[in-house]
Design brief:
Number of helices: 6
Mean pLDDT: 92
Shape: globular
Distance between the termini: 50 Å
Structural class: mainly alpha
Length: about 160
């Protein structure tokens, strides 16, 4: 019985990884669309603002449909300030993608950003920063990251 639960969890991980792969594909579409919008508007920051505004409206509608309740002020007051920096990081990423994609291409931009994500993610995992469960760095992970970086150089070169 325990073996079946482990297999179910393993298959679920594969399914969820496939979903993540599809969502990752959407980032290529998002970057391309935002880059084109930035070119039309002659402003990567205005394009990023519009992207975030439309995203905010979408999230507002989803929260209304899901009947999400706002937490009490006391809970909001207890949230560490660094937990609100995600929006700033998102703005930096989207604006940078709009600027970089026309210059280096979608594949190179996303490949390089994924390489950077993997490096930082491995450090976060290894040390358990941000209350994340610890997943020690391993030789396999390091080789995987190096292969990603080599892949980025190959994509950019050819």
């Amino acid at each position: 019985m325990g073996q079946k639960i482990n297999l179910d969890f393993m298959y679920l991980k594969y399914i969820l990884t496939g979903v993540a792969l599809l969502i990752g594909g959407l980032l290529a579409v998002q970057g391309s669309i935002n880059s084109q919008l930035g070119g039309i508007l002659k402003s990567p920051f205005l394009a990023a603002f519009i992207s975030f505004f439309v995203g905010t409206l979408t999230l507002f509608v989803l929260n209304v449909l899901m009947r999400a309740e706002l937490p009490p002020k006391a809970i909001i007051a207890e949230i560490p300030l660094y937990l609100f920096i995600g929006g700033v990081i998102g703005a930096i990423y989207v604006s940078s993608a709009i600027i970089l994609i026309p210059k280096i291409g979608v594949a190179t931009m996303l490949g390089a950003s994924i390489g950077g994500q993997m490096i930082v993610a491995s450090i976060i995992d290894h040390y358990g920063f941000f209350n994340i469960a610890i997943h020690p760095i391993s030789t396999g992970r390091i080789v995987g990251i190096l292969l990603l970086i080599v892949g980025v150089f190959l994509i950019e070169r050819f």
